[in-house]
Amino acid sequence: MLDESISTFLPSWLVKLDSPPSSRDPLGLQARAMEQADGLLPGLNVFTSRARYYTFLCWALDRAQAAESKRTHLERVLRLERLLVLCEALKHEDDPKRCSYIGRRRGRRFVSERRGAGLWELPTKILKNQPSSGALRLYRTSLASLGLIEEDDFDDGLGLHLTDRGERLAKQISRVDESVVAWALEGGARTQKRRGTIEGVAERLCLTHAPGAHERRYLVGALFGDAAEQDAQRRRDTVQILFEHGLLKRGSTGEDATDEEAVTDGDEGATNEGGERETRSNWEILRPALERAPSNRLRPIQAAGAYQLVALGLNALFKSALDPAMEEGRISLSSWRRAIAARAGRDFNAARAATWAARQDSPTKIANELLDASVARPWSEVGMLATELLLRLGMVDRYVDWLGEECPPIVERVLVWARGATRERAGDMIGQLLPELVEHHAQVSAKKGKGEWVVIDGDEVMKRSPRPLRLLLHSLRFAQLGQLAADLALDPEDVADET
Questions:
Q1: How far apart are the first and last CA of the chain?
Q2: 103 lies in some domain
């Protein structure tokens, strides 16, 4: 096993922060969604949602690297991260959801267990593995993308240094009680500080605190830069498009957008909570974008939305066989088709698929039904909706156009499959597609080094090592952008092109 301190320095491409647990991506569809997210909002990930984290981390790096011994720098940053968690948990003790931050769950527990105490020590543990799950690790690539740090050669230090921009931002945290900072850096676990003293520091560090004019200007400049900074220009273009079409809605603090335990603990319920938040945020932007007329300006977002819908349809079709196989151990393909046909109505097996599908709702309305977590749908209905969605995507020209952009082979297969709708019945067509999905799943599982959930054995789908599959959209980082927009009170002038 790698030493925890070493894992902090692993290149970002070794750990894809947007990658969901395997229970959400059995068909390997996330990779393309990540490429699209990188094109729309490069430098952001599923954790980078608080603007003042950039300020805090620049300040923490500046203070940590002031020590002569490079070997102490990482531990000094981690201590300041724990100071922030203590400050936030104390400041918001009576309203714990008021502010979201990394380590909130354990920070809240730490304060709750010591409620009423007058003297406080620094927490020794705010995460299961702070070096690999703490704020510096999760924001490191983003700090570089925003031009706040530069990576150094690997050495016994942090392997990075603040840029001039990062140093200017670090100075925006000022008038912090130096005795508390020294306490956190040197002896917080062994000595104690009065609550009131710590709360005074909390006023300076709190992520919900509105940034001052200079701090805001530096943060907006880092996010949207100038034409010479490619990542910044892409972020600027995306935010401009969202503002132009009324699609950017400011987030609200307290949405757990940075509560890492809702994403990384491996707990199925927590993972679903994080995925549902991402899905809601995506859908608030993607649905109206897809329902607008195609345009060159909106095309990047519309193409990303179309891919989200085809991924949803494929996962839903896979789920419609996975669920009964999990419950019964196996299900025959003929029984599976009959159950879906019974739910779909007579035309499903009697008329051409194009005729049957043309009578169904638009792709966005079908997707809305599949994403409605308030309705417990039987697997036969999920299979029917998945078939409707995939056929409709392959029959509507603009979706075919959007999906044709560098789509994975499995999506190309869907588009080819959908062409048969003019001559084949829907009931026959799903019988062709499902076995291919199960085989594709086997290939994806092998590449991941994980076991197959189900396999095809003759005319049956049999369970192997299944996991529950939730119908969610992949992250496009719109949730994080919404929270950043709220923190900075962004408006169209912030991303207007210079003239």
A1: 54
A2: yes
**Containing structural domain, residue 131:** 51-206
* Contact indicator for 59, 473 with CB cutoff of 8 Å: no
Q: What is the DSSP letter of 21?
A: P
- Report the domain count for the chain: 1
Q: Which strand (E) or helix (H) includes residue 415?
A: helix 409-418
> Coil, helix or strand for 417?
helix
**Tens digits of residue pLDDT in 129-182:** 999 999 999 999 999 999 999 998 766 789 999 999 999 999 999 999 999 999
Amino acid identity at 338: R
Task: Report CA 32 to chain centroid distance, whole Å.
Answer: 14
What are 307's two structure tokens?
């891919």
Q: Label each residue of 372-411 as H, E or C.
A: CCCCCCCHHHHHHHHHHHHHHHHHCHHHHHHHCCCCCHHH
Contact (Cβ atoms closer than 8 angstroms) between residue 254 and residue 98: yes
Residue owning tokens 């936030």: 88
Whole-model pTM: value is: 0.90
Q: Which pair of tokens denotes residue 47?
A: 């954790």
Residue 293 CA to residue 289 CA, distance in Å, equals 8
What span, in angstroms and rounded, lies between the C-alpha atoms of 204 and 95? 18
What the block records as the tokens of 300 is 């990047």
Instruction: Kindly state the DSSP code that residue 281 receives in the 8-state scheme.
Output: H
Asked if 101 and 258 touch (Cβ cutoff 8 Å), the reply is yes
Coil, strand or helix: which one is 161? strand
In a domain, 313, yes or no: no
Q: Are the CB atoms for 482 and 248 separated by under 8 Å? A: yes
Whole-number Å distance between alpha carbons of 251 and 48: 13
In a domain? residue 299: no
CB of 52 closer than 8 Å to CB of 207: yes
CA distances in angstroms from 28 to 39, 318, 436, 446, 455, listed in the order given = 19, 12, 14, 11, 16
In this model, does residue 4 exceed pLDDT 60? Answer: no
Does a structural domain hold residue 265? no
